[in-house]
Amino acid sequence: MPKTKQSSRRKKFDYTLDRKKLKKKFLKKSNPRIENRQIRHAWDERKSTAKNLQEMGLAFDPNRSLPIKKQKLLSDNKETKAPGNIVIKPYVLDQLQEEADRPEKDTKTLSSDLIEYAQYMIREHDDDFKAMARDEKNYYQDTPKQIKRKINEYKRCHSQHYDAFISSLAAPKPMDQ
Known about the structure:
Layout: H1 5-8, H2 19-30, H3 37-42, H4 49-56, H5 62-65, H6 90-101, H7 112-125, H8 129-134, H9 144-157, H10 159-170
Helix pairs in contact: 7-9, 9-10
């Protein structure tokens, strides 16, 4: 096969390129960013991935850390040596465990329109979902099950707000004379 035109051409040095920036860009792409903050701070660029994880007390290869024992027909009482995992950076494990133990916040919220819609339906119809479905304010023509799901979502996401709303409905209204 014939050679391409570029391969036969004389190589010229490109003075417009910044070699330092190119090297940094290449290194950044070749070493991806570690998302976990604790692992990123404890990471040593000069060591291999397996060595770094071993020092932190984490497993690089789960098959090696928790091997599946094979059954033997003749039981030989030979003890296998466990790999000597010396944890040099135990604080990483402690921080990861502490982060995992924290309860996750439920950040889901509902739109103000949906909250207003749910409050209107509860105010007008209490727990009669069929009447809610026939209501003229049911613009999206939700079925009774869909309305029930939206109200339950409102109860779950804004429980304190919902309790205050229900208590305001139960409070006797002052009579004007």
